[in-house]
Design a protein that fits this description.
The protein is built from 15 helices and 19 strands. It is of the alpha/beta class. The protein has three domains: 124 residues, Methylthiotransferase, N-terminal domain (Rossmann fold, 3-Layer(aba) Sandwich), CATH 3.40.50.12160; 231 residues, Alpha-Beta Horseshoe (pyruvate-formate lyase- activating enzyme); 65 residues, Beta Barrel (OB fold (Dihydrolipoamide Acetyltransferase, E2P)), CATH 2.40.50.140. Strand 18 and strand 19 form a beta hairpin. The radius of gyration is 23 Å and the shape is globular. The structure holds S-adenosyl-L-homocysteine (SAH), iron/sulfur cluster (SF4) and FE3-S4 cluster (F3S). S-adenosyl-L-homocysteine binds next to strand 13.
Length: 450
Amino acid sequence: MLKNLFIETIGCQMNMRDSEIMLQLLKESGYLPCPDLAAADAVIVNTCSIRGKAEQKAYSFIGSLRRLKEENPDLIIAVAGCVAQQEGEKMRLRMPHVDIILGPQSIYQLPDLFQQVAHERQGIIATSQSQDFAIPSFLPDLKNGLAHKRFVTIMQGCNNYCTYCIVPYTRGREVSRRQEDILAEVQHLVAGGVREITLLGQNVNSYGNDQPRSERTSFPELLRQVAAVPGLVRLRFTTSNPKDLSPALMACFQDLANLCHHFHLPVQSGANGVLAKMNRKYTVEEYMAQVLGLRQACPDISLTTDIIVGFPGETVADFQATMDLMEKVRYDSAFSFKYSSRPPAKSCGFEETVSDQEKVRRLAILQNRQQEITEERHQEWVGKTMEVMIEGESKMANGQWSGRSSQNLIVNFHSPAIYSPGDLETVTITESCLNSLRAELKLEETLKND
Ligand code: SAH
Ligand code: SF4
Ligand code: F3S
């Protein structure tokens, strides 16, 4: 008999992709996705540990499952992801109703762990991390996930040890996936109708660095190979540390027609002293040179970033330097966060000099100004023509369609045509809204359709 599986995913795209993989693996054991928690035979909580808040969110959701488990003792509860990896035994003690605690390297063992739990009915912890871990060959299920765009993981882990960051501890050392496996996955997806691929890794520019020099493929080489897969319409990737952004990667934006014009380049701070304490290994000047290089290689590229406010020792002048950098770069959008101390990351030992109230103040100033810049950047698109990839029809009104531009901007427009997700349409931007653009069909398209 088929069983119901409810998956709650918190965190980054790596976690989203891992959740898809776990669902696919369990499908083979007779589980089907179920959106109703109360009807579930098994629950997976895929957790994120990047900031204290994300961890609290995970614990409060896991805690809320206790009642369900009391009502249905056969319910299997598995906690995966970065909090599970980090907490292990501690989580078992705090949440005794959890059956399986597994780290990111153990997701492929999930069907075995489910079997084990059915027999043993006692908390299992699978959080071992190995230097020799290799991401198994695995072809995604075309029916499980969006039809037109997918994520493909190219590496796991991170070796950078930015002092604030927990990821090197939760995801382990960098492990690159075999190039032939990545290409096979992309070919499989594209042959099945997928039009857009996003390559995923915490630090994609280090792709291949863990492989022997003679067999190594660099990230720009990999990007070229993936871009050449026939039928792939759009290619994206995330995330890159600015210290590793090579001229070879910039050249890809000039050479590869299907590489989207968007670069997520997390800066974290605009002050050199703070960047050094964060162990980011670049200066503001070097970062600005990268920004210039990208804009030279691809003039209409959209740039987005991540920023942390209130890092230990961040002065008002340091914060002002971050604001100045934002004015210079004029990001299309930015994710910004209050610094959160994450043991065992190194910065936990640094004295916290910025009060929570002050962090809130700095974050509000930064986010307000970025919102204005985002609107100004949107405004610059008015009157220009863009190609959008259709995401779907608006539920609000007939004939209203929503898509994304190469820059990853959301574009809404009216059209009498019927599209499928993944179709391309050319539109002219008419108006800029808070978080999106409005457009109309290009004139000749309108005439054609009348
Ligand atoms: N690998 C990516 C970052 C992934 S984490 C990179 O290097 O760009 C996403 C973002 O979360 C980071 O860029 C950073 O801005 C933020 N972040 C990470 N640790 C944090 C912490 N301890 N407190 C606040 N924000 C944090
Ligand atoms: Fe964390 Fe730095 Fe690695 Fe990004 S590069 S995952 S911020 S340690
Ligand atoms: Fe969170 Fe782990 Fe991703 S900490 S951001 S789920 S790598």
